[in-house]
Amino acid sequence: MKKVYFILSLLATSFLGFAQTVDANAPEITFEKESIDYGTIKQDANGVRVFEFTNTGKTLLIISSATGSCGCTVPTYPKEPIMPGQKSKIEVRYDTHRVGPFSKTVTVNSNAKTPSNTLRISGTVEAAATEPTNDVVKPYVAPVPAPVVAPETKTTTVVKPTTPTVKTTTTTKKPTTTTKKTTTTKKPVSTTTKKTTTTTK
């Protein structure tokens, strides 16, 4: 039984030694500040705040995700690897249309020695000032209907092309019949009667 405990302790020691060797070269994410207090702000004011950080490790730092604790808190994180010694930032946008105090968190996951970091935002959103309303009830005035304007009609004059009309006069010539009047003159036939006188001696 003692041998089993001894072997387990050896394995644990060797594993921890190996883990420490790996961690020595792992990237490290170091934030300038891990919480931001908005203070008291007006409704619909700018809700963006910036968390700056540096890769203080010896290898490339890769952020795999950044998630807000609710839909009103939306983080934006760098998708490209961060070189050792390089600075970058995570932007957090809070929905300042919501009135009242708030306290939200953003969880950042990476390949750093500390694989998960929690960022915090807090503050109070004041409602926008409303204009005072008069309690005097004004009499209802019916709206005057707009005058009805007849739709504008456009008159289009179509000019038809005129074709010259040729007046055709048809003259029908009546055939002229020349009637020759034939006059037959009958010459009277004169009958000469020779009178013969007979003398008797």
Q: How many β-strand runs? A: 8
Q: Terminal Cα separation, in Å?
A: 235 Å
Residue share in helix = 10-25%
Report on the biggest sheet. Answer: 4 strands, antiparallel
Radius of gyration based on Cα positions: 64 Å
| Proportion of beta-strand residues | 25-35%
Query: What count of helical segments does DSSP give?
Result: 1
What is the H-and-E element order?
HEEEEEEEE
Mean pLDDT: 77
Low-pLDDT runs: 189-194, 196-201
Q: What would you call the shape? A: elongated
In the sheet with the most strands, the strands line up as: 1-3-6-5
Secondary-structure content class: alpha+beta
Describe this structure in words.
There is one protein chain. The protein is built from one helix and eight strands; from the N terminus they run αββββββββ. The protein has 201 residues and is of the alpha+beta class. The strands form two sheets. A four-stranded antiparallel beta sheet has the order 1-3-6-5, with no helix packed on it. A four-stranded mixed beta sheet has the order 2-8-7-4, with no helix packed on it. The protein is elongated and about 90 Å long.
